[in-house]
Specification:
Layout (H helix, E strand, L loop, with lengths): L6 H20 L6 E10 L4 E10 L2 E6 L9 E4 L7 E4 L4 E4 L2
Parallel strand pairs: 1-4
Antiparallel strand pairs: 1-2, 2-3, 4-5, 5-6
């Protein structure tokens, strides 16, 4: 026996996901994943920018300096020329192979 989701249930589920992304973007909820100190291409200014990238529900919710992630380990990028990444498990920094 298979379960089929009702139309209103599907709409409600999608709405809740979008509301979560908005809450993360505004800083009222923690992001699912935060890339700390990441360097990214700002296509509006045509330059490299540095900051945190908040991800919620698989979407980039925001970029800046004020985002917090869940209580999971945080992935931190340190350099563009020599890409390095480390995971902080709240006791020590562990390098990650890129």
């Amino acid at each position: 026996m298979s379960y089929t989701e009702s139309w209103s249930g599907k709409i409600n589920r999608k709405l809740n996901k979008k509301l979560h992304v908005v809450e993360v973007a505004s800083g009222r909820q923690k992001a699912d994943l935060v890339l700390k100190n990441a360097t990214y291409v700002n296509v509006f200014c045509n330059e490299l920018s540095r900051g945190d990238i908040a991800v919620a529900e698989g979407l980039i919710a925001g970029m800046g300096e004020h985002y917090e992630g869940a209580d999971d380990p945080t992935l931190v990028f340190f350099s563009v020329e020599e890409p390095e990444a480390f995971v902080c498990n709240h006791d020590e920094w562990v390098p990650v192979e890129l």
